[in-house]
Amino acid sequence: MTLIEDNQHLPKHVAIIMDGNNRFAKKNQMPKGDGHREGKNILDPIVEFCRTKEIQALTVFAFSSENWNRPEYEVNLLMQLLEDTILEQIPRMEKYNIALRFIGDRSRLSTHLQSLMLQAEERTASFTSMTLTIAISYGGMWDIANAAKQLVKDVECKKISVDEIDEQQFAQYVCLSDLPPVDLLIRTGGDYRISNFLLWQTAYAELYFTDTLWPEFSVDEMSKAFSVFSSRERRFGKTSEQIQQAKLEN
């Protein structure tokens, strides 16, 4: 049984840092890599749960810019698991009308994986029930620097003037600019940091940290996170009195 009721306030955009796969393997005395294999299987029920709750967007951190520094065998395994995930997700996305997309520095990925990602995006681009984004070779600082680079190019081409640049304009150049800002950021695995994930997009996100390792994360805990989110007052710089007055007026 889930903890959240249908009439409770839910986030539009949820992001998850899926951490704890290696610690799960060590905890259960499993061979190296098996934690990542177990973690791969957790995503499906979470995606389905979000879809049933009419969450507009779910973005998951699969492989960070910094993860390239991990041992070669682990990087190779993660790349293979990402390929397997994409192949498995395409028919699921078609079944559930979910758009699948990817963010990150694709130049560091194999041409085969890049081609597979593009194919998945093209096949699911018209689907509207939810957007599932997988961050691969992604870093929030890379995202912002890349956005600045694209913005400079547009200024040089006179598509936009320097005087037009503000927060709203810059926001159009970062990844996921067409989606709502992240409302809820969940991190599994017990660490209390966001690890260079969606730095711009999570500016006002509610943060939910859990000691649960990603391969042990469940729909019930996802529901608990939603309940915690719904209980929080989101002020966006305003006072509680202003928020309550706005609710009365609406």
TrEMBL record:
<feature type="binding site">
    <location>
        <position position="19"/>
    </location>
    <ligand>
        <name>Mg(2+)</name>
    </ligand>
</feature>
<dbReference type="GO" id="GO:0008834">
    <property type="term" value="F:ditrans,polycis-undecaprenyl-diphosphate synthase [(2E,6E)-farnesyl-diphosphate specific] activity"/>
</dbReference>
<feature type="binding site">
    <location>
        <begin position="20"/>
        <end position="23"/>
    </location>
    <ligand>
        <name>substrate</name>
    </ligand>
</feature>
<dbReference type="GO" id="GO:0009252">
    <property type="term" value="P:peptidoglycan biosynthetic process"/>
</dbReference>
<comment type="subunit">
    <text>Homodimer.</text>
</comment>
<dbReference type="GO" id="GO:0016094">
    <property type="term" value="P:polyprenol biosynthetic process"/>
</dbReference>
<dbReference type="GO" id="GO:0000287">
    <property type="term" value="F:magnesium ion binding"/>
</dbReference>
<dbReference type="Pfam" id="PF01255">
    <property type="entry name" value="Prenyltransf"/>
</dbReference>
<keyword id="KW-0961">Cell wall biogenesis/degradation</keyword>
<feature type="binding site">
    <location>
        <position position="206"/>
    </location>
    <ligand>
        <name>Mg(2+)</name>
    </ligand>
</feature>
<keyword id="KW-0808">Transferase</keyword>
<comment type="function">
    <text>Catalyzes the sequential condensation of isopentenyl diphosphate (IPP) with (2E,6E)-farnesyl diphosphate (E,E-FPP) to yield (2Z,6Z,10Z,14Z,18Z,22Z,26Z,30Z,34E,38E)-undecaprenyl diphosphate (di-trans,octa-cis-UPP). UPP is the precursor of glycosyl carrier lipid in the biosynthesis of bacterial cell wall polysaccharide components such as peptidoglycan and lipopolysaccharide.</text>
</comment>
<dbReference type="GO" id="GO:0008360">
    <property type="term" value="P:regulation of cell shape"/>
</dbReference>
<feature type="binding site">
    <location>
        <begin position="64"/>
        <end position="66"/>
    </location>
    <ligand>
        <name>substrate</name>
    </ligand>
</feature>
<keyword id="KW-0460">Magnesium</keyword>
<dbReference type="GO" id="GO:0005829">
    <property type="term" value="C:cytosol"/>
</dbReference>
<feature type="binding site">
    <location>
        <position position="24"/>
    </location>
    <ligand>
        <name>substrate</name>
    </ligand>
</feature>
<dbReference type="InterPro" id="IPR018520">
    <property type="entry name" value="UPP_synth-like_CS"/>
</dbReference>
<feature type="binding site">
    <location>
        <position position="70"/>
    </location>
    <ligand>
        <name>substrate</name>
    </ligand>
</feature>
<feature type="binding site">
    <location>
        <position position="32"/>
    </location>
    <ligand>
        <name>substrate</name>
    </ligand>
</feature>
<feature type="binding site">
    <location>
        <position position="187"/>
    </location>
    <ligand>
        <name>substrate</name>
    </ligand>
</feature>
<feature type="active site" description="Proton acceptor">
    <location>
        <position position="67"/>
    </location>
</feature>
<feature type="binding site">
    <location>
        <position position="36"/>
    </location>
    <ligand>
        <name>substrate</name>
    </ligand>
</feature>
<dbReference type="InterPro" id="IPR036424">
    <property type="entry name" value="UPP_synth-like_sf"/>
</dbReference>
<feature type="binding site">
    <location>
        <position position="68"/>
    </location>
    <ligand>
        <name>substrate</name>
    </ligand>
</feature>
<dbReference type="GO" id="GO:0071555">
    <property type="term" value="P:cell wall organization"/>
</dbReference>
<feature type="active site">
    <location>
        <position position="19"/>
    </location>
</feature>
<protein>
    <recommendedName>
        <fullName>Ditrans,polycis-undecaprenyl-diphosphate synthase ((2E,6E)-farnesyl-diphosphate specific)</fullName>
        <ecNumber>2.5.1.31</ecNumber>
    </recommendedName>
</protein>
<keyword id="KW-0573">Peptidoglycan synthesis</keyword>
<comment type="similarity">
    <text>Belongs to the UPP synthase family.</text>
</comment>
<feature type="binding site">
    <location>
        <begin position="193"/>
        <end position="195"/>
    </location>
    <ligand>
        <name>substrate</name>
    </ligand>
</feature>
<keyword id="KW-0479">Metal-binding</keyword>
<keyword id="KW-0133">Cell shape</keyword>
<dbReference type="InterPro" id="IPR001441">
    <property type="entry name" value="UPP_synth-like"/>
</dbReference>
